[in-house]
Amino acid sequence: MNSFKKMEQFGNRTAVYADREYSYSEMVEISDGICGNVGERTLVFCLCSNNKESLFGYVGFIRGGVVPVLLDASIHMDRLRRLINLYKPAYIWANSDNQDLLKTMDRSFVYGDYTLFKCPNYFQHNLHEHLALLLTTSGSTGSPKFVRLSYENIFENAKSIAKYLDIHENDKPITTLPMNYSYGLSIINSHFICGATIVVTGASVMSKEFWNLCKEQQVTTFGGVPFVYEMLDRLKFEELLLPSLKKLTQAGGKLSETLSRKFANVCNQKGIQFFSMYGQTEATARMTYLPYEKNLEKAGSIGIAIPGGELILQDDKGNKITAPHLTGELIYQGPNVSLGYAESLFDLSKKDENNGVLRTGDMAYFDEDGYFFISGRIKRMIKVYGNRISLDDVEAFLLEHGHDCICAGTDDHMYIYTLRDDYVQIKKIVKEKLNLKGFKIMRIEEIPRNHFGKILYSSLPKHG
Amino acid sequence: MERVYMMRNIEKYRNAFINVLELEEDDVVENVVLGETAEWDSIAHMGLICEIEDVFDVSLDSEWMTEFNTYQSGIELLKRLGVDFSNE
Fold first, then answer.
1. Which positions are tagged coiled coil (chain A) (predicted)?
2. Tens digit of pLDDT for each residue in A419-460?
3. Which residues on chain A are in Cβ contact (under 8 Å) with B24?
């Protein structure tokens, strides 16, 4: 199932607004033109920003059976080179100004501001027939690990989302999240299968340009990670006049209880449907949603499984939990559960390793009405501005670069503890190579450990 | 009477950018643009707004926050709130 192959049915309807309107027919023609230059089913890196070139490239590759890896256009060149060596893409779809690519690769096709760069070393890929797309697991921790997604994953999830959000062809989302991020991409996919119009902009919600576009284009919906809602709160969202806005979604981490109640109240007053959702890239994007009618009564809940999915709780002995208010690991089953991970090009021929079952690594319980609540995480993972970051991965990365550090923290607040005076160097490589923000570095005298030598993360000093 | 060195408003303003965007003292701070300068993304924007509110003891409204997108525009917007940037 590849719903993008049926896009022609929307013909003259507007698919994209980016400085001007592009109809579905026009988008299909441009997209197929980009993909046609690749020619055969192979692997392509797509360096994404929220612009029409990235979007049309993605649509073309999916339609044409070329497997794209969606990467952030701001990716550090060292990391990009490492990924090129590991995965040997045939082409890279990127901004024509990319000096590093210009120096080493031939240009094979140009559309708008983007160029299809041909990689000099040809490699015959063995791609599994169901493999459609590769996404990074976390924003940028330098991990070369990708999530393998099938056509069924993408379009089953999109269909399910379109159903519970009741998406119509008259809906008009505006981009607020990167398209290479699973949540951002799911907004695009779920609207394109309905024939809706997507307003594409790189402008931040903190810019006048963004709100002018919302007004001019009569935007009806957008999504946001908790940080986006913190910005909206700061902008006094309650005072903004946007009569066309009908639906808001929130995912990518837990919104504080105060803010989720506040937005539920404000949205209910303004006649905006406010949905909280929960998902992971490992499940394409979304697994649960809280129906907007319940956003106050069940504030703080991740809601119920999306249509076609199922949630199960398992206790530490592996038994299914059937009573409310008992905590266990949250397990999701559904057609959107990814095929598995890839760590190099040799994994791209692998078959489905998850068989529709995902152990989320999150601890949860459900209440007497069957609404689920996340209570913690099994693995040492935090969300930093919507991206899942493994604290152990960051520690390993720093060790690889000669810094023996301990990482800890909570969502949006990562702490790096070092025993040496290497503050400046750590700050530089974490910023540049991992592209991480919002972390703090602290010098400590010794690492707190228990009798068994296990690190006592809870005994580490906290920042003020 | 002892002379106390008071930091001029323009210096306070420039320092706010250097601190929040983590720039170097000799960077051309005057040229930074929201969304174009890598360091000035949405996250840094929120940080800058908090810093400016603290440093100048002003309260910034949403119009201010969304119009503030270059080093220069911030100065103009602060002048409207009564901050004096002439040679004090």
1. none
2. 899 988 998 888 888 878 778 899 998 888 887 777 888 888
3. none
Query: Among A232, A223, A273, which Cα is nearest to A251's?
Result: A223
Q: Cβ of A204 and B35 within 8 Å? A: yes
Residue with tokens 């598995």: A340
Residue A249 DSSP code: E
Taking the CA of residue A354 and the nearest CA in chain B, the distance in Å comes to 36
φ, ψ for residue A401 (rounded to 5)? Answer: -95, 15
Kindly state the tokens that stand for A233. Answer: 């709160």
Note the pLDDT of residue A101.
Answer: 95
CATH number of A3-375: 3.40.50.12780
Sign of CA dihedral A348, A136, A120, A344: negative
B2 within domain boundaries: no
Residues of B in contact with A207 (CB under 8 A): 34-35, 66, 69
State how far the Cα of A62 lies from the Cα of A56, in Å rounded to an integer.
10
Cβ-in-10-Å burial (0-12, 13-18, 19+) of B25 comes to exposed
ipTM of the complex: 0.76
The CATH code belonging to domain A381-459 is 3.30.300.30
Q: Tell me the C-alpha distance between A184 and A285, whole Å.
A: 9
Closest CA relative to residue A138, chosen from A72, A40, A55, A188:
A72
* Six token digits for residue A370: 């069957």
**Residue A424 CB partners (closer than 8 Å, separation 6+):** none
pLDDT digits (tens, 9 = 90+) for A96-122: 999 999 999 999 999 999 999 999 988
What does each C-alpha distance from A27 to A10, A47, A411 come to in angstroms?
11, 19, 38
**What mean pLDDT do residues A237-247 have?**
93
Q: What DSSP designation does B5 have?
A: P
Q: Regarding beta strands A247-250 and A221-224, do their DSSP bridges make them parallel or antiparallel, or are they unpaired? A: parallel
